[in-house]
């Protein structure tokens, strides 16, 4: 017999000789069942280790001087494109009146004709260069008694109907159809309005704004400022004695309205609570009214949101986001995998609507609510920027050492329970046999 080592008495796993071991059929069955259970539990532990969860954080938004993109797609079935104007303004004093970049007007046939697409043009329908190139180079049109606009093609002149309209707007004069205005008669401005009476219009595109409190609205007629008041020339929109089929209303369908880039479908599917309905609650909204003088107001609270994918590198992401101003805002990380984050926005919204004639809200079941009279017909979006920022960070809920610890616990626990069950069955069978033998 070999000499015992000094560590022998420290052995916590005392061995038994083979002659002292008893193997039973029940023990073999329990062993196989235990192995299957261990494999199943280890597989579940592995899947839990590989699982990716989203950990939301709420922090103070410390960004300054940023821009924000508004993606919109809105249809007006009873408002022709010739009368549609999009204006943007914010508390910093910046105004974008008659936005003409990044947004298209899509002329639509009347609802009775199926609302098919008739034409797609940039938001500024009247191309002054196209009209003016057919004129005599020495031609200098009158501005209807108003000073020529500063952005006129030819200084001191109004060579197009649109420049006359701009001159009238600067003087805060109503323009209507431009009667007795040579340029408008030459271009057929009144005929164009009458030809589009039954048409609808869809605005689609992107507007880049300052990331401060502001609003944008779609209203009929050219806009201008009267003192500190923003007004629209709605004479053509509210023209009396039009047949019912040609009367205009602010009925609208919001197909899409979002702030910042849309999350890829892959992320939306992975994070089910970030689908389009939750991040863009105004999508597929429809509002109808039979009245021309009606105003719809949406009050939007915008919350900056960052999505940090698994393995996100903050230094690499910062360099990507600051590399180019021409890249769509927040979209820098979309093509960079785990290296770049996605910067976008979520929003919540409440809405209000009222007739410009005033009166109460008895039609909505609120007779105690009194509507103010007068105002501008249109659809108004007032957005406010939350001072907080939501960071959604992808992470694994379990580390590799946690996975190994779980595997060890599964094996040890399963075998311990199996041994107890086997011991109980063995002792029970022996006791029954003794009773029968006696």
UniProtKB/TrEMBL annotation:
Membrane topology value: Multi-pass membrane protein
Sections of the chain in a coiled coil: none
Assigned keywords, A-Z: Endoplasmic reticulum, ER-Golgi transport, Golgi apparatus, Membrane, Transmembrane, Transmembrane helix, Transport
Cited InterPro entries: Erv, Erv_C, Erv_N
All copies of domain Endoplasmic reticulum vesicle transporter C-terminal, residue ranges: 150-422
Residue ranges of the region described as Disordered: 321-340
Residue ranges crossing the lipid bilayer per the database entry: 20-43, 399-421
Entry's localization field: Endoplasmic reticulum membrane; Endoplasmic reticulum-Golgi intermediate compartment membrane; Golgi apparatus membrane; Membrane
Keyword Transmembrane appears in the UniProt entry: yes
Domain Endoplasmic reticulum vesicle transporter N-terminal: 8-96
Cross-referenced Pfam families: COPIIcoated_ERV, ERGIC_N
Family classification: Belongs to the ERGIC family.
Function text: Plays a role in transport between endoplasmic reticulum and Golgi.
PANTHER family per UniProt: ENDOPLASMIC RETICULUM-GOLGI INTERMEDIATE COMPARTMENT PROTEIN, ENDOPLASMIC RETICULUM-GOLGI INTERMEDIATE COMPARTMENT PROTEIN 3
Name of the featured protein: Endoplasmic reticulum-Golgi intermediate compartment protein
Organism name: Aspergillus cavernicola
């Amino acid at each position: 017999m070999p000499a015992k080592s000094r560590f022998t008495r420290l052995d916590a796993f005392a061995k038994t000789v083979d002659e002292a071991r008893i193997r039973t059929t029940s023990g073999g069955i329990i062993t196989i069942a235990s192995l299957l259970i261990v494999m199943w539990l280890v597989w579940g532990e592995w899947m839990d280790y590989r699982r990716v969860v989203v950990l939301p954080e709420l922090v103070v938004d410390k960004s300054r001087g940023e821009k924000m993109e508004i993606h919109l797609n809105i249809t007006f079935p009873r408002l022709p494109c010739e009368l549609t104007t999009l204006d943007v303004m914010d508390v910093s004093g910046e105004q974008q009146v008659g936005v003409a970049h990044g947004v298209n007007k899509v002329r639509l046939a009347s609802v009775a004709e199926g609302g098919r697409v008739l034409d797609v043009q940039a938001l500024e329908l009247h191309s002054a260069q196209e009209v003016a190139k057919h004129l005599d180079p020495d031609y200098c049109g009158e501005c209807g008694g108003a000073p020529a606009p500063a952005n006129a093609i030819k200084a001191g002149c109004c060579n197009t109907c649109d420049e006359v309209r701009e001159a009238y707007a600067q003087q805060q004069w109503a323009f209507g159809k431009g009667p007795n205005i040579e340029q408008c008669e030459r271009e057929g401005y009144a005929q164009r309005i009458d030809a589009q009476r039954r048409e609808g219009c869809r605005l689609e595109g992107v507007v880049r704004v300052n990331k401060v409190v502001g609003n944008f609205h779609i209203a009929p007629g050219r806009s201008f400022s009267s003192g500190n008041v923003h007004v629209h020339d709605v004479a053509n929109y509210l023209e009396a004695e039009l047949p019912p089929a040609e009367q205009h209303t602010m009925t609208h369908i919001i197909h899409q309205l979002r702030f910042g880039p849309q999350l890829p479908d892959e992320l939306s599917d992975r994070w089910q609570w970030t689908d389009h309905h939750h991040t863009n609650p105004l999508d597929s909204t429809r509002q109808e009214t039979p009245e021309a003088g009606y105003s719809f107001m949406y009050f939007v609270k915008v919350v900056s949101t960052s999505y940090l994918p698994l393995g996100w590198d903050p230094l690499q992401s910062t360099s990507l986001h600051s590399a180019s101003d021409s890249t769509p805002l927040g979209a820098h990380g979309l093509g960079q995998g785990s290296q770049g984050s996605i910067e976008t926005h979520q929003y919540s919204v409440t809405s209000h609507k009222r007739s410009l004639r005033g009166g109460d809200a008895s039609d909505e079941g609120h007779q105690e609510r009194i509507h103010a009279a007068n105002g501008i017909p249109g659809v108004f979006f007032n957005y406010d920027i939350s001072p907080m920022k939501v960071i959604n960070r992808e992470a694994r809920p379990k580390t590799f050492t946690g996975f190994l610890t779980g595997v060890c616990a599964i094996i040890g626990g399963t075998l311990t329970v199996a041994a107890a069950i086997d011991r109980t069955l063995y002792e029970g069978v022996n006791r029954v046999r003794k009773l029968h033998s006696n």
